[in-house]
Amino acid sequence: MDEKINLRDLQLPEMEGLLKSMGQPAFRAKQIFQWIYKGVKSFDDMNNVPKALREKLTENCYIGTLSLIEVQRSKTDGTRKYLFELEDGNTIESVFMKYKYGNSICVSSQAGCRMGCRFCASTRNGLERHLSPGEILSQLMEAEADTGEKIGHIVVMGTGEPFDNYDNLSAFIKIVNDKNGLNIGMRNITVSTCGLADMIDRFAEDFPQVNLAISLHGTTDEIRGAMMPVNKRYPLNILLETCRAYTEKTGRRITFEYTLVSGINDSDSDAERLCKILRGMLCHVNLIPLNKVAESGFDTVSRGRAGEFQKILEQRGIPATVRRELGADIDAACGQLRLSKKL
Ligand code: SF4
């Protein structure tokens, strides 16, 4: 073996294959997998694994971790925002949040992003690279270690377009779902996409129980296209058709993320159009008053305006909520922490 293998990148069957190649039985892989997801970072602490095997593992493998560069702690609601450094010096952000139903983490799936959404700080320098499955899940492990609390819910909504890194996203989901490890239910995982329609089809096929969130942000191709270049590749009619097919196939409700931007997509007629294009679909709209990104040229709306917009949707039978402001006292738009360290 040339390069050392990060065992957090491996699904259990892959670990079994690796151990087999070392002349070991499958149950050893399960033991090691269980140790890793109990949070053990050194092979020496795996006390039911023979010493000779621990030495061999140390020679050929490692348990990848992230370096914590900065953590911002909310004094009001327990939210923690992390900036981590990867092995190659790239940085990523994650956010730990406390909800009534339990703890949740928002993880990044890429360092940077190539989708170019105009209101987003994460795309300013383009895509640096995809994150490996282990790098995605280490965000959760590090947050559990920092808070001393279990995390039962995951949203893949941090930096990056998860469907642009589909294979690693898919491996990540299978690893965190494994009952021998973190055992996080598929229904407790949400993946958010900017609307890569062909990948939504694939996702419905592969993970019918995982929740899907779509960044919509506009009700016409003109408005959405001005904010999200992806709309050229997958215009609204194609995206919405795919969404309807998704709900029919999976029976799952889609969450549409709709960032309210003053004077761009927050008028009464925007709200009415939104009802029209979503009519009859199994869905929920999450309204997000824009988190101001310096120099983006976009302005946020008041919570009052967000409430009025929500009311129009609800009066027409579209379930909608205004996103609760978590960690408002530490708030900076997603991606800004990372950006501020880079400039
Ligand atoms: S909003 Fe998401 S998909 Fe769009 S540029 Fe930012 S990270 Fe990428």
Automatic annotation (TrEMBL):
PANTHER family: 23S RRNA METHYLTRANSFERASE, RADICAL SAM CORE DOMAIN-CONTAINING PROTEIN. Specifically methylates position 2 of adenine 2503 in 23S rRNA and position 2 of adenine 37 in tRNAs. Belongs to the radical SAM superfamily. RlmN family. Binds 1 [4Fe-4S] cluster. The cluster is coordinated with 3 cysteines and an exchangeable S-adenosyl-L-methionine. NCBIfam families: rRNA_mod_RlmN (TIGR00048). It comes from Emergencia timonensis. Signal peptide: none annotated. This is Probable dual-specificity RNA methyltransferase RlmN. It catalyses: adenosine(37) in tRNA + 2 reduced [2Fe-2S]-[ferredoxin] + 2 S-adenosyl-L-methionine = 2-methyladenosine(37) in tRNA + 5'-deoxyadenosine + L-methionine + 2 oxidized [2Fe-2S]-[ferredoxin] + S-adenosyl-L-homocysteine; adenosine(2503) in 23S rRNA + 2 reduced [2Fe-2S]-[ferredoxin] + 2 S-adenosyl-L-methionine = 2-methyladenosine(2503) in 23S rRNA + 5'-deoxyadenosine + L-methionine + 2 oxidized [2Fe-2S]-[ferredoxin] + S-adenosyl-L-homocysteine. Reaction proceeds by a ping-pong mechanism involving intermediate methylation of a conserved cysteine residue. Pfam families: Radical_SAM, RlmN_N. One of its GO terms (cellular component) is cytoplasm. It is found in: Cytoplasm. It comes from the Bacteria. Keywords: 4Fe-4S, Cytoplasm, Disulfide bond, Iron, Iron-sulfur, Metal-binding, Methyltransferase, rRNA processing, S-adenosyl-L-methionine, Transferase, tRNA processing. S-adenosyl-L-methionine binds at residues 160-161, 192, 215-217, 291. GO terms for molecular function: 4 iron, 4 sulfur cluster binding; metal ion binding; rRNA (adenine(2503)-C2-)-methyltransferase activity; rRNA binding; tRNA (adenine(37)-C2)-methyltransferase activity; tRNA binding. CDD domains: Radical_SAM. [4Fe-4S] cluster binds at residues 113, 117, 120. The gene is rlmN. Its EC number is 2.1.1.192. GO terms for biological process: rRNA base methylation; tRNA methylation. Its cofactor is [4Fe-4S] cluster. The active site is at 93 (proton acceptor), 334 (s-methylcysteine intermediate).
